[in-house]
Every structure is written in structure tokens, then in C-alpha cells.
Amino acid sequence: MPRRAATRPATPLARRPSRHPAADETAAGGESHPPDEAVFAVGGLLRTVQQVHDRLWQELVPGGYTSPQFAVLHRLRMRPDIDQRTLGEGLSLDKATVADLVARMDQAGLIGRERAAGDAGRYTLRLTGTGRAVFTGLAPWVAQVQLRLTAALGPQDTGRFLRLMQTVTSVIPGAWTPTTPALVLIGLPADPAHNPGYLVRVAQQRHTRYWADAVGTRLTAPQQGVLHRLAREPGIDQTTLAERVALPKAPAGEIVKRLTARGEVQRTPDPHDGRRKLLTLTSKGFNVLYEVMPAAREVQRRLTQDLTADERDELLALLGRLSKA
């Protein structure tokens, strides 16, 4: 199958006319004072580690199967004859995403659906022979993705990382119990609570949801990352910017294009290379960045509210090491 591009909510961010003094300093050519890195660190590192996981997946896993598709195969291999709702809860995916996955994988002959006994409106799911063969062929490669992702940590720190991420995501070890003999494979635990890639995805989904609650549609987290990086490193080019914010060149270019159109970023020719454009924040861009600071802090607070301050710092350090994999 081909790949396909997966507490109390805060008040959405409103547009405010107030300006931060740094915006005026920047406009006047003075020294700027961008927000502290820690305000955005968790979300940015989670996004980067998710991208590392996706890169490893593309490098190692054959056949064009996606991580969510394999997760469906894995769950149904461990617990056949569950319904679609139970599958979605086990994968931490919304109803629409699970329905689309199940429909496409059913059409591809990887899973089968049968009406549940005594409930004509409910279908149970299980792997077909083809689905079982595909799972068996992919499993060793998927295990390598998880092992490569955490290779920089070592066994002890990996265990610590998993425990911290279980707290962040509220994924409880032992909540997903296999009903068939588990496939014993180093790097591919039967319990998703011990799967680093799964925990990173669930945490990233939470961050995205919290960001929408707090900031709304005014500014996306990747756009904020670009503004923040340019506040800290004014005058870098687009290639350098993409590297700094851990985004592929094309998506980074689209973000810069949109922010430039909104008057929040400006491009100027490099005096030493006329073909190269240098990027800086405008006073408007700096003002927008400071407007989102309270909301960004609320996102981080919600995401890490069950961690102590020391645990949060430890998680940041571990995510930072994983982001360089």
C-alpha cells in the first residue's frame, strides 16, 4: 500500500493590539530579546523526534507501509476480533482516521471484517493470511526503527524516557493485553506503553490539540518555531533556517512564504551573494511572537503538568538527545 501523508482547555489566542518593546527595538535597529527557549522546548523537540522517527521509518521499513498501518496490523495480531472503536482507542487515533485506515486495509486484503454475534451493527476485525504475512515481514524492520531511535540513550535512559513519556501521554503499561501469544522480538514490545515511537506520536498529538485550544488558527506551532528561530538568529538564509527548526526545505519554504506575505518576515539580499536571501523578523513578526508567549506557556504546562520540574528537565534532555539521532 502506498504511503499517505497523522485538563481544562485554554481560551484561544485573540489578536491584541499591544506591542512588546522588543518589536520596536528591532524595527529601530536595536538589540532584540526573543522569548526564552524553554517556553517552546517540549513541543519543538517532540516534533523533531517525530520527524527523526519518520525518517528512520522511510529508510528502513520496506513496501511503502506507514506507521499507522503497521500499528493496525500489530494490534490485530495481538488481539484479533476486536471492533473498530476498541482498535481506535488502542491506537490513540480518532474515529475518522481509524475508519479510513480500516477501509483501505480491508480493500487491500490485509484485514477482514465480520458482523459481531448478537450485534448486527458491530463488526469485528482480524488479519487475513496476507495481513499476517505482511506483519511478519515488516516486524523486524519496525523493531529496528525503535532501536535506532533510542540508540543514543542506552537501556537505562531508554527505560527512564519511556516512564516519563507514559506519564505525559497517560498511557498505562499493561492496559493493552494480548489475547494471542505475543511475538517475541527485541525492539517491538507487545505493549504499546513500551514503544517509544508510539509514545512520541501520542504526545505530539496531544501537543497539537493543546496548541489548537490555546492559540487557535492564528499561528501554527511550526510557524511559531520559524518566528522564534529568526528572533534568535536574524539574518540566516532559508536553508539554515530549515536545519535549525528541523523541517524539510519545502515545508519550511512554504512557512516563510506565508509569513512574508503576512508581513511578519522579510527577505533581503545577501550583500556578499546576490542569489542568497537573508531572513529577519519585522516588528510585526516580533509582536506576534510575543503575543503567543502566554498561550505557548499554557501548552507546555498542560503537556507536562503531571511531571515535576526535575522530571520535565530530564525529559527535555532526553528528547534533545533523541532529536540528534
Protein architecture, described:
By secondary structure, this protein is mainly alpha-helical. The chain folds into two domains: 50-207, Arc Repressor Mutant, subunit A, CATH 1.10.10.10; 219-291, Arc Repressor Mutant, subunit A. The chain has 14 helices and six strands. The strands form two sheets. Strands 1-3-2 form a three-stranded antiparallel beta sheet. The chain has a three-stranded antiparallel beta sheet with strand order 4-6-5. Strand 2 (111-116) and strand 3 form a beta hairpin. The longest helix has 21 residues, at 129-149. The two termini are 27 Å apart. Residues 2-32 have low confidence and may be disordered.
What are the salient characteristics of this protein?
about 325 residues; mainly alpha; Arc Repressor Mutant, subunit A; three-stranded antiparallel β-sheet; about 55% helix
